Amino acid sequence: MHCPFCKNPDSRVVDSRTSDDGLSIRRRRECPQCGKRFSTVETASLTVMKRTGVAEPFSRDKVVSGVRKACQGRPVSDDDLAVLAHKVEEAIRGMGAAEIDATDIGLAILPPLKDLDVIAYLRFASVYRGFQDLDDFEAAIKELRDDKNLPTAARHEAPEVN
Q1: Do residues 88 and 65 lie in contact, with contact meaning Cβ atoms separated by under 8 Å?
Q2: Which residue, 7, 34, 70, 117, could crosslink 124 as a Cys pair with Cβ 3.0–4.6 Å?
């Protein structure tokens, strides 16, 4: 780590602390040449492997934009989407891998989206899981209605399919 004051290529760590969310480490450093102190924040990089084989850095913004389409016309705010993206990132980082498949991100999106809005969940799941016909929708709706962890109002938001 180069000193931002004198550009010395060496520094020593004086103190390290984990951030409140546990996703980064704040290090207090001191330059042995000029004696000045500075702070750095370190985060573990998270790489997403796409289906095409291309690797790219994880982006909360991509999670939000993908879920926003499913939430179109639903009572879901930008703050709700930001919280969802944070939960998804925590779940992915909790897996302990530096490289994750894009399909695992989709799986990590489903639970918090179900808690947020069941209609948006159905929309996202229909694309992500590749629903082929009405039977797939009926099975997903039945699963939602049988989910005892959902609030009663959420269980009845799903449309009746006959």
Answers
A1: no
A2: 70
Which residues contact residue 109 at a Cβ distance below 8 angstroms, ignoring those fewer than 6 apart? 63, 66, 67, 84, 88, 124, 128
What is the rounded CA–CA span in Å between residue 159 and residue 141? 8
Whether 62 contacts 102, CB under 8 Å: no
pLDDT tens-place string over residues 90-122:
899 888 888 999 989 999 999 999 999 999 999
Farthest CA pair distance, the chain:
76
CA distance 20 to 139: 40
Q: What mean pLDDT comes out for the span 26-30?
A: 94
State how far the Cα of 157 lies from the Cα of 119, in Å rounded to an integer. Answer: 7
**Antiparallel, parallel or unpaired: β 47-49 and 99-101:** parallel
The answer to whether 117 touches 75, Cβ cutoff 8 Å, is yes
